[in-house]
Amino acid sequence: MTSNERAATLLRGMLRIRRLEEKLIHLAEDKTLIRAHYHLYVGQEAAGTGACSALRRDDLVFTTHRNHGHVIAKGGDPFRVIAEIIGRRDGYLGGRGGTFHVAAPEIGIPHTSAIVGGSLPIAAGTAWAAKLGRSDRVTVVFFGDGVMEEGVFYETLNIAQLWRLPILFYMENNSVTPEERPGRGSPTSSHAAKALSDIPRAFGIDTTILDGTRVDRVARAVGGLVARLRAGEGPLFVESRTTRWPGNYGSFPRLPGGDTEIGWAWDQAAPVEEVREWHAKSDPILLWARECERAGTLSRDAIVTIDREVREEIEKAAAAALASPPPDPRAVLENAYA
Amino acid sequence: MTSNERAATLLRGMLRIRRLEEKLIHLAEDKTLIRAHYHLYVGQEAAGTGACSALRRDDLVFTTHRNHGHVIAKGGDPFRVIAEIIGRRDGYLGGRGGTFHVAAPEIGIPHTSAIVGGSLPIAAGTAWAAKLGRSDRVTVVFFGDGVMEEGVFYETLNIAQLWRLPILFYMENNSVTPEERPGRGSPTSSHAAKALSDIPRAFGIDTTILDGTRVDRVARAVGGLVARLRAGEGPLFVESRTTRWPGNYGSFPRLPGGDTEIGWAWDQAAPVEEVREWHAKSDPILLWARECERAGTLSRDAIVTIDREVREEIEKAAAAALASPPPDPRAVLENAYA
Amino acid sequence: MPERVISFAQAIAEAVEGIMEEDPRLQLIGARFTGHTKSARVMDPIMERYADRISWPPISEIAYCGIAIGAAITGVRSVVEMSTATFSYEAIPQIVNEAAIVHANSDGRVCAPVVFHVLYGIRGAGAAQHSGSPQGWYWSAPGLQVAMPATPADMKGLLRYAALRSSGPTVLLDHQRLMEGFGPVPEGPFEIPFGQASVEREGDDATIVAASIQVQRALEAADVLYRDHGIAVEVVNLRTLQPLDHATIARSVKKTGRVVVTDESPEDAGVASVLAGIVASEMFDSLRAPVKRVGVLPVPVPYAKTMEDFVTPRVERIVAAAREVVGR
Amino acid sequence: MPERVISFAQAIAEAVEGIMEEDPRLQLIGARFTGHTKSARVMDPIMERYADRISWPPISEIAYCGIAIGAAITGVRSVVEMSTATFSYEAIPQIVNEAAIVHANSDGRVCAPVVFHVLYGIRGAGAAQHSGSPQGWYWSAPGLQVAMPATPADMKGLLRYAALRSSGPTVLLDHQRLMEGFGPVPEGPFEIPFGQASVEREGDDATIVAASIQVQRALEAADVLYRDHGIAVEVVNLRTLQPLDHATIARSVKKTGRVVVTDESPEDAGVASVLAGIVASEMFDSLRAPVKRVGVLPVPVPYAKTMEDFVTPRVERIVAAAREVVGR
Ligand SMILES: Cc1ncc(C[n+]2csc(CCOP(=O)(O)OP(=O)(O)O)c2C)c(N)n1
Ligand SMILES: Cc1ncc(C[n+]2csc(CCOP(=O)(O)OP(=O)(O)O)c2C)c(N)n1
Ligand SMILES: [Mg+2]
Ligand SMILES: [Mg+2]
Known about the structure:
The complex is a heterotetramer, with two copies of chain A and two copies of chain C.
Chain A: H1 3-27, H2 45-52, E1 60-62, H3 68-73, H4 78-85, H5 119-132, E2 139-144, H6 151-162, E3 167-173, H7 198-202, E4 206-211, H8 215-230, E5 236-241, H9 273-281, H10 284-295, H11 300-323, H12 331-334
Parallel strand pairs in A: 1-2, 2-3, 3-5, 4-5
Helix pairs in contact in A: 1-2, 1-10, 1-11, 2-8, 4-11, 5-6
Chain C: E1 5-7, H1 8-22, E2 27-29, H2 44-49, E3 54-55, H3 61-73, E4 78-84, H4 92-99, H5 102-105, E5 114-120, H6 135-139, E6 145-147, H7 152-165, E7 170-175, E8 182-184, E9 198-201, E10 206-210, H8 213-229, E11 233-237, E12 240-242, H9 246-256, E13 259-266, H10 271-282, E14 292-296, H11 305-311, H12 315-326
Helix pairs in contact in C: 1-7, 3-4, 8-12
């Protein structure tokens, strides 16, 4: 891939997530489409997109309640993702799982837990199976900083290190101020460690801190880590830092500034005040667009075109998902027991 | 207390545990008295005795499946401890709990869990209550190195530190070789940390490493830590290292060298080979007897006399426990629900 | 004097306020009792007023439940708000292996009066991991009390009893879909001691035994049954599963001879089956028809509304069951 | 040809050896299937032979159960030996919130065939925390299969089915007090598919429905009942609670009209009550007497032998219950 192609691919990947999730907020106005609270990946797109760009299709990914972005980043079809979230037959899980559980077994996301920490040991298990089978498939498990409050995190870390499993623990610390993103880390109200990265290090696990708003750096760093995992140097740990998007507080996401406009990349004063600083300093998509333009890998026109294409793609996907029928209720009786 | 009195008290305290537990091994030959596997504190007496010597009666202590020694050290009555272990009415719990659960609410051991890690959060809870009530009571929770494999350990450590609880985490690492007892610690087959003490330190908790076979040092060190806890400097953490007694492998303790002879303190070649080195290098009682004699705080005669008195005390306690009747089965129906 | 009518969520707020006021040592661990509902804000004033007695722990269910147990052992009671019932699975070792046994294991000398509050059941789009119904598990953990209020008054009286008067640990299960339901609730403080069922509606043709949201559904079913089929059912609101008020159930079954048991837990091996078993063994001689069970179809709860409705023990399924036992 | 007779513990060893041989990818996590019994050493040769396919994890139940689930999802089956059943409570979030839902939640696309092996029940001096009986919980966790072998042949056939053939997760509960019991076991490999109860003894006067150790106690009770009271009971060995063989129970109940259900779990809200509820709702028309339940008295299991015996669902209690339903 040329650096231009690469720039475009990363931008397109992130935009696909952003546009899909903005669309969800619009859909959620109809309470019959999204009936309860749900979690968006807005602001973290660079992490999932960058990390998954370093993976093969047969590598495994695990995610959380905040899964939409990871499924798209691993190659998920927006149509089937939206259909799942609105509970339709063409969803990846036939509408059984919904927003909490979006998964896509055919592209390496076999099971998504919405329990805090629920995916961690399962991910260690797929890594264990790969090691037993002398396969070089790796497993990446994405999870939030909150998982470090659950005991299962420590048990999994310990076994992964004792058994030297080919797994990347990709921790997304998504409440870091822009100023602190590059720093060592600071204590939080819910974890006693001076820096969260002290914890995996105490287990002897090699740990990398990344600015999770920088898609290119994430992609390169994870590329290197994945190569090490394939070479048997696992487990490895990443702390990836992002800054919370103002629409993402509380249980029901809002769009305080409306849909993101790609032009804000150059017109940083344009967004409403509530989101202005966030888009300027912490929006991974606008940061990347700006960087690509500056570096000359993508022109403004190219960027605008990619955005338009993605918006069209998502609109089509949403229309198809809305046209998908609700699942036949009796089907639940068939699949309860394997 | 004079240093002679102190020496005698610590020796007597440790011997009380040793003689009681040796007696249990003899009693266990009758399978109707001890019907299943049980855990002894032989070799760890200095830890419990030294640590509890620094506590007040109203301080709280929590222990584990390996609890006999802690209950005695906190001031438990050998008669009621033995009665509990053989399931008799005069046991501390009326025979309901048995060896796994020996507790003594009246002296600050309200509930004993035999689940690995089970006591930790409960102990944090009594510490929390003390803090809320502006009391200077402290809580000491004894637990094994194996607890660091359970997630509840980390969750409790984290909250204890976030809430600054007056609790001493007293971890008994009981499988350390004599040579490694003073060292930094080394990786085990079941924990990935290079040194177990790296873990509490990663949570920002002040951590002390002690040779748990040295009763005097334990007593002094814990005395200092408890004073700090009373001053609001909690939580604190101790790693206390002992070396496993050869009779303590497998599920059913044995007495490979017969009852400990106090004279082995000076005649290190006397024990049978299987236990000879252990008694010479790792038996906290013989180490203390030797040290007291050398320091002149206790004469050989005084040591032998203390031992004889303790043996008589335990014989009497055992006889009384054997004379205690089995509990009335119907009583179980009364206390199931509070 | 006209009865005062408030919502279930308001009754929670009133109950929490009342207990916080009465016992100045009482602590809350978490305080979002009303979940992700329209009534979420009802707790705001209390969270403000009692901020210094509310702890917001990390996401560490097993630890903070154990902490509440330890505090209770040394005399500080707390109410632990755990949010979704499935999160309490993380704490089962503490709730079942510890809290439940403290009293018995100490030969009655030590008590652990903690209230574990959870939101159970099919809340709407909760899917497999946010629709759990563990009431049957906790009921079969000897030493634990299990309360399941059906009305705003139940809620206020049961929480107060559990938090202030009971000496034992209680799992109190609420249902999000009850939050906006209204009912008469006395203004002042009052308690509903455990083990006292109430007959919410009298009838001669059949008995519906239920707790929590199934009482409300049973009452709706009773209207339909009477209006459309001339069937008069009696509705027994259990209020607590443990202790269970066998006498009130037996009295009603003796009168009607026909029983529907319903609970929003798995139909095959959940609470409805247990209750049917109790009726079959203790009240067999009164029975004139098979006991009918209405529970959650025993599958992991699905997300899509069509499927979710299908597995829910809805009013129509209760109506159908009652018609079957009555035979018309 | 005379039948070959081996102990339950030997049957476990044979079963484990057979599955390790047949599926060269199969893993064991832990391997002390026979617990703290006289038969503990029976696993030694297997632990030696297959050392490279046995993992000894840290004391991290929730993690190693989850690891087994993950491995199963990508095609590596394992049998997880968890020792005492109460330790499995630590792993309930993985067993119930994850393993159980993997298949349903993926709309049938993903499978997690893991066997979770535990030793449940009153083993003798296990006290409150080493005598747990969670079979009812796992049964009421939709998506999980629950197997409870009663005989050495059951053990061999059920473990083999669960480990090699089933596509779903199974909790297999063994009882330490069965280990030294003997019974005929075919030499070669064989499987007992789930959901097939067996009638261990025929009789016309009453049906005893049981699994695991309660089958053995029921058979002893049957001897006493016949010898001392002329009562001929039929003993139904369920083998699996989930799936449950309703047809075999119904056939027997139809014949006898009188039923005792027994299980070593709490009597009030455990498996015996659930089974009684199923009988009362599905087989009511055959019933000629109240269904009698014999379970563990619903208290935290005590340590002292006098108390422990008292709460155990012993042979004498089964005899008394059967005499009651028969009326002589
Ligand atoms: C065991 C459990 N406890 C509580 C919850 C409720 N819950 C859902 S998301 C969440 C916060 C998770 O924080 P973090 O891991 O940082 O993820 P983020 O939402 O920030 O991406 C909580 C407490 C849960 N799903 N599971
Ligand atoms: C949750 C749980 N898992 C497993 C066990 C079985 N078990 C009892 S003691 C023990 C080892 C504990 O080791 P450690 O904490 O170091 O204590 P030690 O016996 O060495 O004093 C284990 C695994 C248990 N009691 N609880
Ligand atoms: Mg977070
Ligand atoms: Mg140890």
